[in-house]
Structure formats: structure tokens, C-alpha cells
Amino acid sequence: MGRSRWAFYELVNVCPFLEVDGRSATLDSFGSRLQQFWLPDEPILYVGKAGTSLSARTSTYYSTKLGATGPHAGGWWLKMLAILPELTVHYARHSDVDAAEIALINQFAHQLSPTSRANLLDRNRVGPFANVRIPGYGNKAHGLDPVWPWPMRAKVVRVMLPLPQGAGWRRKRREPDDLHPESTVCGHKA
Question: Under 8 Å CB-to-CB from 13, ≥6 apart: which residues?
């Protein structure tokens, strides 16, 4: 698995407290952790659904900065690969994209070779390499923190706003949905 050194440093720049199993992440520890989910004999790296057009879906994927949870952070492990520009998107139309995504991931897991399954760190939540969340099972046990939890950990955030005269600070509670997606970093609202 060729990993992108640049992508790791971009991620750490946005998520400076990135950890692997509770310890500060290094290029080697982070890369080694991703390697534990790499499936070298599998050509499928990610299965995703597009509730909108494929063009809109891929556009939001590529425009979402590494480290941001929106507008589309799914498949972010792909962005850690040096081969990202060489990958091809294959697609099929389906009337029920949620059911299709679940069926494809379940089929992938069912047909995974015994060798690949034995080498996985998490053998209970099996899916393509970049599917961090497995529908019906939750996130893979990857030990990476704080990176894009599903569902969001924080339901309410505190935002410090200056008083009109600059005489101090006041607190204002805001729901995460009230914040602009670009202010969402490392799974936490900024």
C-alpha cells in the first residue's frame, strides 16, 4: 500500500491531536494502522452511495478537505493513498441506494478471502479498505482518534463571541447543524 506522506502531514496540520491507540500519531504509526486494513488481493477499495448525481457526489468528495467532516468525508482513507489519482469510479444505478450499499458491502465481506480476513485488525466489521463505517456494524475498530466519528460525539458546542464593546466574552450555545460545514474539523465543530 503506497501512502501519501503529503496527505498525512495535511491531516496532522488540520488534526494536530491525531492519535493511534491513545498515542500521538506519527507517519509510521498512522501508516502502519492503515496497513492493517489494506486488502492487497481486493480490487474494490470503497463502496459508497450517491443520493444525488454521481457528478455531485464525486465533486463534493474531492472538494472536501482532508480533516473536514463536510460536505462529504466518506472514503477519506482513499485520500491517504499515493495512488488516488489513478483510481477509477465504477457505478450502477439503483432505486434504493441505501439497500444497495449495504448489499454490496455485505457481499464484499462474504467473499473476502480467508487470507485477507485473517490479516485484518478488525475481523468483525469487514468491508472495503476505505469504508470506515460498516452499515449495521458501526465504525471499524481502527484506534484512530479524533477522526470523523459516526454519529457526531458532540451534540452542542460552545462558541466564544466578543461583546459589542470588546469588554469581554460571552458564551453562546449553538447546535452543530447551525455551523458552516467548513468549520467542522476532525469530527469536532470548531
Answer: 67
pTM (two decimals): 0.74
Q: How far apart are CA 121 and CA 39, in angstroms?
A: 11
Cα dihedral sign, 38-44-45-51: negative
Mark out the alpha helices in 36-164 (DSSP H runs). Answer: 54-63, 97-111, 114-119
Cis before 146 (ω within 30): yes
148 closest CA partner among 163, 135, 132: 132
Instruction: List pLDDT tens digits, range 123-181.
Output: 999 999 999 999 999 999 999 886 543 333 333 333 344 444 444 443 333 333 333 33
Distance CA 130, CA 44 (A): 9
**Residue 184, CA atoms < 13 Å, CB-side half-sphere:** 24
> Residue 36: which of 134, 123, 105, 107 has the closest Cα?
123
CA distances 56 to 61, 89, 181, 184, Å, are: 9, 13, 16, 20
